[in-house]
Inverse folding.
């Protein structure tokens, strides 16, 4: 687990860009946290690092936005409006995620999507401008990248975290 702090949307975008620099096609990244915690700002920074220059907005109503970044496709998914697992199944997300794509899923913690990098964003209880961000993973594909991930996000490491 890596615990981080972001003090602005720009910092959240920078943190996401650092993670995007280590992301590989086939990666699934779940963005969790309450409304307004910075999931879309994270997606914007991630996409920009991949070389996507068009506006990145939350796909709340369309459910999936797809962007091309060279030979890599970024699928940005938002499951907020879905009430049932069957509705998520109808999106056929496993078919979208292949060896040429990366998938970011906002509100992806509402269903089991399989192995992924989990990014939990929370508004700090004492300062609404600060975001506490926790990175965890149950995806063995991230294990060989974990030390590089820690190094890439080092500037955002929360005070008191042992790393």
């Amino acid at each position: 687990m890596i615990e981080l702090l972001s003090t602005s949307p720009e910092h959240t975008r920078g943190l996401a860009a650092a993670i995007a620099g280590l992301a590989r096609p086939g990666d699934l990244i779940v963005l969790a946290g309450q409304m307004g915690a910075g999931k879309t700002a994270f997606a914007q920074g991630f996409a920009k690092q991949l070389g996507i220059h068009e506006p990145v907005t939350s796909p709340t109503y369309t459910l999936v936005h797809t962007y091309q970044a060279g030979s890599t496709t970024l699928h940005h998914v938002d499951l907020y409006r879905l009430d049932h697992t069957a509705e998520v199944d109808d999106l056929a997300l496993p078919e979208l995620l292949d060896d040429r794509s990366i998938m970011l899923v906002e509100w992806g913690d509402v269903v089991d999507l399989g192995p992924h990098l989990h990014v939990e964003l929370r508004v700090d209880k004492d300062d609404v401008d600060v975001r506490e961000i926790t990175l965890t993973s149950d995806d063995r594909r991230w294990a060989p990248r974990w030390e590089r991930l820690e190094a890439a996000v080092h500037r955002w490491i929360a005070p008191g975290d042992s790393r």
